Amino acid sequence: MTDSPLHLAVALDGAGWHPAAWRSEDARPGALFTPAYWADLVAEAERGLLDLVTFEDALGPQSAAPHRPDDRTDQVRGSLDAVLLASHLALRTTHIGLVPTVNVTHTEPFHVAVGIATLDHVSEGRAGLRPQIAARAADAAHFGRRTTPQLTDDDIRDPELIAARLRPLFAEATDVVEVARRLWDSWEDDAEIRDTATGRFLDRDKLHHIDFEGPYFSVRGPSITPRPPQGQPVVASLAHASTPYEFAARGCDVVFVTPRDRTGAKAILAQVDEAVDQVGRDVRDRPLRRFADLVVFLDDEPGAAARRKERLDALDGAEYTSDAAVFTGTPGELADLLLDWRTAGLDGFRLRPGALPHDLTALTRRLVPELQRRDAFRRTYGAGTLRARLGLPAPRNRYAQHG
Amino acid sequence: MTKQIHLAAQLPGIHNVTVWSDPRSRSQIAIGSFVHLARTAERGKFDFFFLAEGLRLREHKGSLYELDVAGRPDNLTMLSALSAATTRLGVAATVNATFNEPYEVARRLATLDHLSGGRTGWNVVTSFDAFTGENFRRGGFLAEADRYTRAAEFLATARELWDSWAEGDVLADAATGRFVRPGAGEFAHHGEHFDISGRFTTPRAPQGHPVIIQAGESDPGREFAASDAEVVFSKYNRLDEARAFYRDVKGRLARYGRSPADLRIMPTATVVVADTDEEATAYADEITRAQVSPQTAIAHLEAVWGRDLSAYDPDGPLPDIDPEPESLVLKGHSVFRTGRAETARRWRALAEERGLSIRELMIEVHGGQTFVGSPHTVADAIDHFVQSDGADGFVFATHLTPGGLDDFVDRVVPLLQEKGVHRPDYTGTTLRHHLGLAPRPRAERTSGNAREAS
Ligand SMILES: Cc1cc2nc3c(=O)[nH]c(=O)nc-3n(C[C@H](O)[C@H](O)[C@H](O)COP(=O)(O)O)c2cc1C
Questions:
Q1: What CATH number is attached to the domain comprising A252?
Q2: pLDDT of B427-436, one tens digit each?
Q3: Ligand 1 pocket by Cβ (under 6 Å)
């Protein structure tokens, strides 16, 4: 077993990941669009010393099928912009990383970069970016600028098929991340000089046009926002197939993967390694952290979590399954599983609470102490940025002159 | 009738208003600076805190402009953070209607209104140049004549999106299993600039619609203000000019079935307060000289002359060579866009008449603080300005970040409160309420499924 600390993230989405979670006894479905609801959840995650929270988002309402909208009225529909939500929570927290999902298919790369740089400034070094392509053709009609492929029911049976159909969108997303990274570097750390002798506030030699030209768009730069505190906020993406592994290998700092078991985790990590090789990334220089996603239902009493999930399944009228493995059990059992899977080479986990706040509270108040007892998780946050906590080195500015 | 004065504060972000060379000057980007200024404004029971926008760093003679403070946040992201640091203060952002899409802007503004509990305002600007466009996918194709037609349709589309959810569309009824009312969020807009349809993600926000602000002075700009805006920013902060602008814009409202009370006009202004009028005047001069450094004076002149004047002595006379009206040396700044030959003629006449050096002339035409004096003098001047219909209030840009509002709030605001022209405390929670604006009723959906009886 490795000695490196286990990393734990939690993925927040609506009332929890089970579509009927909003009907749980302790759910607050009427409060989903209030800041207090989210502030309570993130405070709980911070109490558990978690590395970061991610916020789901999309430029269209939630739907039961990943590739097209639906008319269901019995599930949570409606959401807030994740970057603004994360920013609002920045002043209500002090340590935890804040990683909003951002659609990179229909947005302006310049706005994405500046928004995340701002989140990093307001959180003083705790920002991340989770770039996501728009897989639903219907979302394109919300913008009217272009169309995107309509996936068929056949396409979505297999992640490789989906990814193949969406390959151009991943290529474009790669450019968006590249532009964001260049814009974050476009101000050197010491570009602001306040030199009264020459009357100059800035040193223009330390500001850089990025002059990005690609097949999808071009961006001139520099950013309007000074270099963010982390230099490069943490970029994290969810990936299920070779094309998105390659996307992560090119531009991300963290990849969330979805194994079913330890053997599956090994196989996926081998594929990720392959993608890393293929794009020629030196991970000693630019490490890629690998987290496994897992939906979790947790109760102390053996069997209770599975029964709770069954009750929610009955309310929803279907057995809940997910792209990630679904765990039901006790916090002790989950601790066993995490420490076992981790030996496949994972750096950490992004846990998706089945129902909120129940399964989040079980994570922070039961799982975390259990992991601490086994010396597998931190006991305090300590100082430092999100990058530093994840063991990512301080980034070099590509435009700075060295030597 | 005594008018109530509306107050807003702005962290300038760019421009030579900010005296960065003052030892008390702090970061223009650190969150602490924004929080300090916002909380000071809230302590003074201001209506709102405002952020301007510029989507490209300015360039001068082909290089990045170095003399002024630059480097600013994304507006809505910053204001979302500030809405967690304040409880009543409105938060208003400039968001360009050219370099954005309605779905996204409507969604972000609705989100901010939810997160702030109904305190959001939107300054819809159109400023367009191909220079700024180089940072965007869309690029810089929009013709100048189309700016306000796109802006008007952009706003109309955003309103359709905000109206696509009714209050109460979120049922969240665990017992019946109904989370949302059928058809919530459905929209379809087929227009000249936008042809979009589908489902809007964000339930109706506390204010329904954010407060709409406009800041432009052209004729189409004023018409847009008269038809659609609830607050207008102007640069006219000298009483005579301000009254003319005020009369003109308020006079246009009737054409759109609106009354003068439906619109607040708030010029940008600066304030210098000291114990006595004399001290304040001396301090104001000091600030103005810091704002118009020798280098800044030459740069401003170059912006109008359209050519390199670095060989000229800022303490010497104006250049004897003529301006080059065709060449634009300052990019990313709406000032000096047009009318430069005429400006140069006026400046030359003024300099000759008064015997001014380059820098003295620049101080004369650009410098100067709006309200200068003891707390009593300033309070009286502000009140007089508003009561004589030069404005309904002001947006204060402070020369010091972040402490530039402290004296005003501590020393002038109490006097305005004593006069009964500024609220002693907030009486409501929304920006609309602070500004005395009526709620915007929801327009019934024109598209979408028939609604289920509830
Ligand atoms: C007081 C004031 C503030 C303004 N603030 C901004 C701003 O923050 N961002 C921007 O792009 N334009 C800003 N503008 C520019 C105007 O919105 C407008 O685009 C410009 O004046 C050209 O429009 P016009 O032709 O109607 O005058 C401002 C203008 C004024 C008068």
A1: 3.20.20.30
A2: 999 999 999 9
A3: B 52-54, 94, 96, 125-127, 215-218, 221, 233-235, 268, 334
